[in-house]
Write a structure and sequence with these properties.
Elements: E1 49-51, H1 63-73, H2 100-114, E2 132-136, E3 140-141, E4 146-153, E5 157-165, E6 173-178, E7 182-183, E8 191-193, E9 198-200, E10 207-210, E11 217-225, E12 230-237, E13 246-250, H3 252-258, E14 280-282, H4 293-298, H5 300-309, E15 313-317, H6 318-323, E16 333-336, E17 342-343, H7 345-356, E18 360-363, E19 371-372, E20 374-376, E21 386-388, H8 421-424, E22 427-438, E23 457-468, E24 474-475, E25 479-489, E26 492-502, E27 508-511, H9 536-554, H10 558-561, H11 569-572, E28 579-580
Parallel strand pairs: 1-10, 3-12, 13-15, 13-16, 16-18, 17-19, 18-27, 24-28
Antiparallel strand pairs: 2-4, 4-10, 5-6, 5-7, 5-11, 8-9, 11-12, 14-21, 20-21, 22-23, 25-26, 26-27
Helix pairs in contact: 1-9
Domain N,N-dimethylformamidase beta subunit-like C-terminal: 159-522
Biased composition (Basic and acidic residues): 44-56, 100-115
Region (Disordered): 16-59, 80-125
Length: 581
Amino acid sequence: MRGAWDSVICPRLRPVPSRRTSAAPDRAAGHSVGPHRLARPRTAPHDGPVDGEHGRISGGLGRRRFLGAAAAAGAGASAVAATGCDSSSERTGHRARPSRRADAARRAEEAERARPGSADWRIRSVGPPDAIAGYTDRVSVLPDEEFGLHVSTTAPAFRVSAYRIGWYGGAQARLVWRSGRVDGRKQGPPVFLDATRTVRADWDRSLRVRARNWPEGSYLLRLDASSGHQRYVPLIVRSRQARGRTLLLHAPATWQAYNTWGGYSLYQGRDGAYGSRSLAVSFDRPYAKSGAEKFLVYERPLVVLAERLGLPLAYTTGVDVHLRPAVLEGASAALSLGHDEYWTPQQRQYVTRARDDGTNLAFLGANTCFRRIRLERGPGGAPARTVVCYKTAYRDDPYLVNHRDLATTDFRQPPAPDPESSLTGVLYEGYPTDAPYVVLDSGHWLFAGTGVDDGDSFDHLVGVEYDRVTPGDPTPAPLRIIAHSPLVCRGRHSHSDSAYYTVPSGAGVFASGTMRWVEALMAGTRENGRDHRMDARTGAFVTRVTENLLRAFAAGPAGRDKPRPEDNVRAVYSGASRVGA
């Protein structure tokens, strides 16, 4: 979310300059651009390794019928289970015959999903801000790699529990590892870097953990203070490759941009003003509040659903795509989740290339790929530990002097305008809004089995930020608008659009056009306290559409099996001139 001070409100106040096609992003020395070997974590004299292996834990309905069942589904444990079961016949497609290694990985993945879950993974008591908090020295690790955990607590001791997020029969997480008792201490005040108003905790490392025998996936490390208070630390155990699998792209750069720990984020300073905001934020500090707010609301529901469907999955982050783009090679699909705003130009280039090589893309939020960022090193030279985004003050960035194409401002703005719509098909327009989602093309294959008709609506599904098709900006063609939702934003009338297009490689690209799409997967249940009054009917509808999407995209380039979209942009936005991507 953003306030009136930020560079985009509704409707867009700034004109979008014509797109500028530039060469490949500059690979400047001293900045994290290509693949790097991560630096060793800082050592602390009092810590020792904690082996992650030796913890205490071992290893199609008619319309009335569908919508009626959807309303009843809210009484269940989760709306992600409200519709359908997986069918192996729907997962066949254009992948090459799997290798023995892929077969073994698949069997391991199925075995992991069959394990019993752990119902006690949720936080019971956050406590005061200094009760306990922590951060890792890596946003992700490969299985069996080591990471450092930096913790400060007012309690005399704490423990760490590592939970892998998934379906697990409805428990939605499994305890993979738990530490022994660790001595606690309150660490020193954060470091403040005046030049960029950056806050870093720079705490000593409390323990080292090796993710031995931890399956790939999304993890929450729960810090349990002996006082009874708790916090999360998110960690992705990433996949080395995603060939033939659906790749989930987590968004830690966006988590960090909104993180107010220490009083500063990319949106405000300690006084709450935009003018005193950070120009760069560091991963070397805890996340505020529960420690994983963005992940829990905008990413966890999709992880749970995808795991329940039994699809071949791979995991990474936007930061890791920037550093290690090879993970995209051969992926059947790449999914950008509910709030994925901050991208490097390199990440965008690699994702675009994957699309053009046949990888399906889904943008399941709004405001995606909106900010152009730079990743810089952190303490000790560790790569990609700082997110730089000067926004409206980009002219003050000394890096810009020799790198005009890498201004850390909105992608659509000078000096190197390149609106995100050329990739996503839609353009971010504004905040805040709250409106019904209105179906435009009920016959589209994504709506199969929902029973909806043209004009059917789902209250509160559009918000709090939204995207729409803007014919005057670079937009792929043919592009089909399948939902067209009237709304009011800051007193002005506009629309949110869900859109689908394909490219010559056969890849299909879907954009939901609303930030509440992933959140709605758990609407009408007790799982999400920020459901914005979305009901079980909405949750079941979004779940079924997302199931259709994931199954089709997992089968290979959707443009080869699904109908080619018939462009309707001029029909929906009559009289508008069209600019090709």
